[in-house]
Amino acid sequence: MNPRVNITYTVELGELEDETQRLVSRAIVKLKNITDRSEESFFRSDILSLNSADQVAALRRELATVDFMLEDISRIINGYLQYKSAPPEAPGPTAAPAGPPTIPEELQQKLQEFADAASTS
């Protein structure tokens, strides 16, 4: 079997149903093709042969591919269901309008004393 890689892509929420349906259709078509080819080849050959063993191995690989496709679809559907069942996000706290910073009274007194001392020098 060929190595598998995970990919991530995004679709608009409104396109999710169509995209999921497209993936399901691909999996079903692949499964039908596997079934049709298997019925033809197994009925034409001696079932207890090396050729049949090879055909069974190939069939299992193809079914594994379909299983991967269905797993992807399952994750998409479950992710969507989790999204729909999650509580709506609460809006963040609203910040008070930023005004000029206030200077503590003690610091204001010290600054005034410093200014007075500087002006008398």
How would you describe what is shown here?
- By secondary structure, this protein is mainly α.
- The chain has a domain of 73 residues.
- Helices cover 67% and strands 0% of the residues.
- The protein has three helices and no strands.
- Helix 1 runs antiparallel to helix 2.
User: Which oligomeric form is depicted?
Assistant: single chain
* Helix/strand order: HHH
Please tell me what the overall shape is: rod-shaped
Task: Output the radius of gyration.
Answer: 34 Å
The number of helical segments is 3
Please indicate the percent range of residues in DSSP E strands (runs of 2 or more).
Answer: under 5%
Low-confidence regions: none
Q: What is the helix content?
A: 55-70%
Please give a quick description of this structure.
This protein is an all-alpha fold and 121 residues long. Helix content is 67%, strand content 0%.
Q: How do the helices and strands line up, and which of them pair or pack?
A:
Blueprint: H1 16-44, H2 50-85, H3 105-120
Helix pairs in contact: 1-2
